[in-house]
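Changelog-adjacent note: as of this version, every example in the card shows the full chain rather than a window. The one below runs 261 residues end to end.
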Amino acid sequence: MTRAVRDYLPPLVFGALAIAVWYLVIALRHVPGYIVPSPGDVVAAAVKNWGFLSGAVLRTFLEALGGFALSTTVGVALALLMSQSRMIERSLYPYAVILQTIPIVAVAPVIIVWLGPGVPSIVTVSFILALFPIISNTTLGLVSTDHTLVNLMELNDASPGQLLLKLKIPFALPYIMGGLRIASGMSVIGAIVGEFVGGIGGVQGGLGYLIVATAGMLQMAYLFAAALASCVLGILMFFLMNGLSYVLLHTWHESSLQREN
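Full-length structure tokens:
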């Protein structure tokens, strides 16, 4: 119980204070609801439109999950390839950096033209935005393996496959999980950006379409509800990866072991 209070009470208290300040600023500054709605108005809008809002959250979640799964598969595969040779790393890594530095809002319309509006384009945008953290972190972990341990295994006639499976991947696992935690949030952002540009409207739209539509109609309370739902979705993806990281690392890695003092 003490640990639960220590972990969850501070963010809950901070959230309550933020809501109180939100109410206070609106009351003191007499801010009209069509500019900044009150928390109560946001909750009321979310409850009133819950059917559509929950459907949009689910669609965006599935699109982000698809982009995240694709980026994980491709990113880890490319990192494994680059870790085998410094020449391969020098050849491919700059292009991964270029992919990360190109603004996604500039790339998304091109992808929509190529693939057409809908789920494939949205998943592709999510994949592109989430790819670089996985490549970067996984490559760093794989090439940072203790050389003494590598030499020791090679002295015992370990094959390249044994080196990879028994030493390099376990050593890189904390780095990989760090990349996955970053990429999980980026995949949600990518899905929403994809929905901005090439999402499907109406009842088939995700959070990106919903945010654009409510902003156009100046439904500020509903807009805030959709924006907060996207934040919650990103947090959910992050905590899913955090939980997976704990399951994989809590028995042996310092980042997940409970300190004695």
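Structural remarks: The first helix runs from residue 2 to 29.
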